[in-house]
Amino acid sequence: MEEKEISQAVISRLPRYFRYLGELKDGGTERISSQELSEIMKVTASQIRQDFNNFGGFGQQGYGYNVEFLYTEIGKILGLHKKHHLVLIGAGNLGQAIANYMNFEKRGFIINGIFDINKDLIGKRVRDIPVRPMEELESFVKEHNVDIGVLAIPKEAAADVAKRLVKCGIHAIWNFAHMDLNVPKDVLVENVHLSDSLMKLSYNINRCGKPEDHK
Amino acid sequence: MEEKEISQAVISRLPRYFRYLGELKDGGTERISSQELSEIMKVTASQIRQDFNNFGGFGQQGYGYNVEFLYTEIGKILGLHKKHHLVLIGAGNLGQAIANYMNFEKRGFIINGIFDINKDLIGKRVRDIPVRPMEELESFVKEHNVDIGVLAIPKEAAADVAKRLVKCGIHAIWNFAHMDLNVPKDVLVENVHLSDSLMKLSYNINRCGKPEDHK
Questions:
Q1: pLDDT tens per residue, chain A (215 residues)?
Q2: A67-73: which pairs have CB atoms within 8 A and are 24 or more residues apart?
């Protein structure tokens, strides 16, 4: 059922469904129609049905969706029933913000190791995880069965570190460095390019042309 | 020329063009064909031509693109020739990471004020900008002609702060809080949902089904 090719556009929407369903579940809602979900999420009901049909539906005609079931199923599709082991490269402000975000761990994303080149940071603890020197990266990754590398480092260092991660067997990189990584095809990269996001906002501000635009 | 409706998909790609063109320019490249740009950026040349045609083209048949001109023009389309004034709400790790990212200022995004509810942070300086108490938000926004509010706060506080920002005239919010904001239609919101991004990566890991998947 999951074997057909799902578009990245659909995949991009799944975490949002998961988020809303989690809130509905926590709020005690047991079932919901695509119409009601559509109103809360501000997407069309037909979009919701189409998206869910990629995974075989989930709904029963006239009954709607069972919130807990749907939440669990989407969680499984997202791979959240499995534990993921992460190393975080970069213990600066951004790295610390990522490490301190407790919700990741709740979702099965365990930060096993934190690494930095800055000698002043090495040995410090972020959420009780010691910051290690970069020299220990390869042996640590192998020992801890790490599957995701997180790059919270400047772009100048990113290409080199990505290469090291790939070389020691990591197939998934969550990249915050302000550049696109050049990695083999079988390595998954998910980028968070903050500047790109801010520029998109700037485009839309510019496009909407507030009268009081200040030069 | 810019008046027709450009799809958000095209807009999403503009910052990436801008980034690559900036690097080419800094590296001394004066002109480039769509074919060459295609190879560097790993998108098809026809995609590049189509995207640029939304804005009238930029290229000359047989000559290719003038890198500096294209860089400048895309920068203008992105509104980067104008200064934007920002307030940052939340001076935790994430807020500090954002404030410390020097490149934003280089692109015309000036952080005028930083606010937090945490009394221990108030008065501290992040990149020489003092952290102010939330009570001063409204008067500060009005005084400093602020046009973008940045939310680097937990989701519990986000709805309330967004409402305050909108009420004092801010029409653009860069939202890092892990929730969708409910704002009037004329308020632009650009979300950075870190969890959503990590879940997307997790989906793709799960989908690719590495044999050594560890439970």
A1: 445 678 888 998 999 999 999 999 999 999 999 899 999 998 999 999 889 888 877 766 678 889 999 999 999 999 999 999 999 999 999 999 999 887 788 889 999 999 999 999 999 999 999 999 999 999 999 999 999 999 999 999 999 999 999 999 999 999 999 999 999 999 999 999 999 999 999 999 988 754 444 33
A2: A67/A21, A67/A24, A67/A25, A67/A29, A67/A30, A67/A31, A67/A32, A68/A25, A68/A30, A70/A17, A70/A21, A71/A18, A71/A21, A71/A22, A71/A24, A71/A25
Note whether A46 and A93 are same-domain residues.
no
Predicted complex ipTM: 0.89
A186 & A91 share domain = yes
Interface test mutation site (partner A, options B3, B200, B210, B215, max chain A beta carbons within 10 A): B200
**Same domain for B40 and B94?**
no
Q: How many domains does chain B have?
A: 2
The pTM is what?
A: 0.89
Query: What is the rounded distance in angstroms from the CA atom of residue B159 to the CA atom of residue B126?
Result: 25
B206: chain A residues, CB-CB within 8 Å: 77-79, 82
Within the 169-198 window of chain B, which residues sit less than 8 Å (CB to CB) from chain A?
Answer: 171-172, 174, 178-180, 186, 188, 190, 192-198
Give the CATH number of the domain where residue B113 resides. 3.40.50.720
Q: Which residues of A touch B54 (CB under 8 A)?
A: none
Tokens 């990629």: give the residue: A54
Instruction: Report the Cα–Cα distance between both ends of chain B, in Å, rounded.
Output: 54
Which residues, numbered 55 to 74 in chain B, qualify as contacts with chain A under a Cβ-Cβ cut-off of 8 Å?
none
As to burial, measured by CB atoms within 10 angstroms (0-12 exposed, 13-18 middle, 19+ buried), residue B76 is middle
Q: Which domain holds residue A144?
A: 84-196
Is the CA virtual torsion A154, A160, A161, A163 positive or negative?
A: positive
